[in-house]
Amino acid sequence: MAIQRPKGTKDHLPGTPGTPEIQAAAHAHIQHVAAQLLERAGAQFIATPIFEEAELVQRGVGGSTDIVRKEMFTVYYAGDHGGYVLRPEGTAPVVRAYLENGLKQLGSPLKLWTHGPMFRAENVQKGRLRQFHQVDYECLGSTDPLADAEAIALMWDIVTTLGLKGVSIQLGSIGDPEDRAAYNDYLRGLFTPRLAELSEDSKDRLSRNPMRILDSKSETDQAIIAELNVKPMLDFLGAEARDHFGAVQGHLQAWGVPFEIDPSIVRGLDYYRRTAWELHHAGIGAKSALGGGGRYDGLAQELGAKEEVPGIGWAFGIERILLAMADEGVPFPQGPSPALYLAALDGDYIPLAAALTRQARAVAGADFSYRKRGAGQAFKEADKKGATWAAVIGSNEAAQRQLTLKHLGSGEQVAVPFDELNTFLKENA
Ligand code: HAM
């Protein structure tokens, strides 16, 4: 049997009819819109390795998370395990790169963004892949609630600029570490008498990180949670975390960014404190998020920094945005189509077609045929490539140093001298 792509991965293809889920042009469009809006907000691009020391992920993402406990891809080379893993997310790598390269000198706060593939060995289902792509934004060096609100607003601006209408922001706070410790004590008190009934995963969570029980996928666990009438994390916020949360909401309201409060938000990574949120969309199922983020003021020190580097950021999953776009039927620009397509009627003129094409590329998209073509065939090819203008080159054109350009939409014909081709394309492409 022919070799197929690994389970839980996707090919993103050019020019494929049908659903945008696998269209490379839609994938590129999402990246492009995100890049533009993030760079307008002063975020600088950063790229980090696809594999990292396993310890970075263990310490960064956290030993109690499903990601570290069940979903790590370990890298082997020459039969050896070098202690590396494929990165499951972008935040710990970006913070590592910031610390390792002394990026504080670039100014504080520093806004960074990145994109690329992430890897988690998950149970594969709709929107849940083993290799997926994230766009990731991180703002390092500020504890100001303005940084939180700006991060959330940027995410909102990107999804709305893409044309998505059905997105909701679920906003919460998981407080400071001492607030969470109090909440975990409360949860332990509540769940310990029911220990025997909990799922195996949740039994384990009870000692490591009881909050994670609330996020359990087991129906029995969820029934127990409902029965116990568990108080939400928000009820346990200390004064500082409460003020911070109030200020974030105030900024978002002032900017007209809509959100709903999720009083018991649980994120799948351990580094969060205070603000945490997720973006949801009906088209991808209630259990999955389009994106999520939060504040992680303790992460730098967890990774070995001497002083605290506060941070706030988010990531969204490109494949999940594609599903949401497919669900809403949101249009997106197709891949490149040339303004000009040239073909030679005779083999002798192929070099001339090539030279004119290369000249035209200084101002517009242009392509040409490697083989001689009859006029009918040439225009058909041009049409298939989605070209705006097409022309053939034979002895007449070469002698007169002039092309007769045909507009493939209207059929209009225009005579354009070779040395005016670029000016013409600039104005009419
Ligand atoms: P996360 O919530 O784990 O956060 O992932 C962010 C987004 O990545 C998810 O909302 C989802 O769209 C996408 N995603 C995650 N896992 C999968 C998967 N298996 N298949 C498809 N898409 C997936 C983080 O990764 C944090 N680093 C976000 C962050 C940045 N927090 C602060 N800064």
Protein described:
This protein is α+β, with helices and mostly antiparallel strands. It folds into two domains: 248 residues, 2-Layer Sandwich (BirA Bifunctional Protein, domain 2); 89 residues, Rossmann fold. Helix 1 packs across helix 11 and helix 2 packs across helix 4. The protein is 37% helix and 21% strand. An eight-stranded mixed sheet has the order 1-5-6-11-10-9-7-8, sandwiched between helices.
What does the secondary structure layout of this molecule look like, with pairings?
Layout: H1 24-40, E1 44-45, E2 51-53, H2 54-61, H3 66-70, E3 74-77, E4 80-86, H4 91-100, E5 110-119, E6 131-140, H5 145-161, E7 167-173, H6 177-191, H7 200-208, H8 219-228, H9 239-255, E8 260-261, E9 273-281, E10 291-295, H10 299-302, E11 311-317, H11 318-328, E12 340-344, H12 350-360, E13 366-368, H13 375-384, E14 389-393, H14 395-400, E15 402-407, E16 413-417, H15 421-428
Parallel strand pairs: 1-5, 7-8, 12-13, 12-14
Antiparallel strand pairs: 2-4, 3-4, 5-6, 6-11, 7-9, 9-10, 10-11, 14-15, 15-16
Helix pairs in contact: 1-5, 1-11, 2-4, 5-9
Bound molecules: histidyl-adenosine monophosphate.
Residues 89-91, 120, 122, 127-129, 132, 134, 136, 138, 268-269, 289-294, 296, 313-317, 319-320 line the site of histidyl-adenosine monophosphate (HAM).
Subcellular location: Cytoplasm
Domain Aminoacyl-transfer RNA synthetases class-II family profile: 30-333
EC number: 6.1.1.21
